[in-house]
What we know:
The chain is α/β, with parallel strands linked by helices and 504 residues long.
Amino acid sequence: MSNPFINSIVSWFLKKRSHQIELFIKYPNEVQNDVLINLINTAKDTEIGKEFDFKSIKNYRDFSNRIPVFNYEDFSEKISRARKGEDNIFWPSKIKWFAKSSGTTNSKSKFIPVSYESLEECHYAASKDLLCMYLNNNENSMLFAGKSLRLGGSKSPYKKNGTYYGDLSAILIDNMPIWFEYSSTPSTKTTLIPDWENKIKAIINETALENVTSLAGVPSWMLVVLNRILEKTNNKKIIDIWPNLEVYFHGGVNFKPYINQYQKIIGNDNMKYYEIYNASEGFFAIQSENNSDELLLMLDYGIYYEFIPMDSYNSKEKLIIPLEDIEINKNYAIVISTNAGLWRYEIGDTIKFTSINPYKIVVTGRTKHYINVFGEEVIVENTDKTISELCKKYNLEIVDYTVAPIFMKGKEKGGHQWFIEFKNSVPNNLDIEKKIDENLKNENSDYEAKRHKDFTLNPPKVILGNSGVFLKWLKKNNKIGGQNKVPRLSNDRIFIEELIKLNN
């Protein structure tokens, strides 16, 4: 797809989806109810459908009373059987694909079922919708006059017992529609190179001379690739290599700590940045407007949503509510039922709704990625904003960071320890610990209260990481590649102690 004529045809086709999106925006609860009933009816003759008598479920009340909330451990036995080739356990169509989780919250890998329906009606449908929304917002776009530089996958999926497992991105690439393959770079062969260093070299060689009009991938890893391309080509700005580059589609980690670096190295003031929210379990939300931090929750992908208010999350009786009962600016854990056979499944992410007409969200973190050792209830959203403001104000460029508690010893109060790797040097006169403390107080009132007159918490301590230390940690833990991320927050010191050891 290399000329304006084809670009205009593709654009017209993608825009036809707009009226369907308008439908679930106008009738969100009705659409979600239809999704639920369709899921129940489709799976009524499966093993789990018979176990919970899906045939007698007529509405949400029946559904919520009948079926418990599951986490991965609750569901793992059934998934293990499906991976060995058993059919009709939790979804009627044969499941051949399992997305292997990077496992940032614990050492054990998770294998998330990916059905044909979830591939076509969720993941690939979302990719088309993302393009549709972008093109509707940017009518003069020439996106399809060039190619998209995609970054993802680590290796081709492995076959075992007649089923396949691997990174979600690798599974998606392996099943990619032909039209997408022709509009992307590098080649599938290059994209799936397992060794990260060799992959980067191959990506640079293949893409430097292409007409790249868009980028797609996790911000931290994409930044590595772009900087290496600049070094290889002896250019100062990405726009000098790809003059028609117009948009970056990103997800996986909060973009705010990286935005200044992208603006600096791309060199195009008209560059657009579009965020997505997806996971191995499904594709959930898409930025629907230019220059927005909010993501439109997609309601017709074969996923039924429920939510647990985080203020009840650790109670014996978790409150679980449907979409129609949510409140704005309240932190929720997400529960999903999907067209891959996950039922009332906790995915481990937390969000806030910024709007109910339409339903729009921001991702706030993970249910296990927070610090609440001293009652401070600090979440990833707080620390991302803290570090983002620091970088913006003092022209710093971050590579990565993590935060862990400093536990009390005797009469000594506890606190937080930040481990941060910057790309550039921190000014000698910058009291970085004081600035982080001030920024976090502004973002989190519980933290501010605990820090009042050092009553509960001491001021934070900051360790500056040596160049490449996070990359060393990722390599050591076999987490190199486009889908892997550093845990931002933890209630223990496992990650940070490993980093300190590597930093010495």
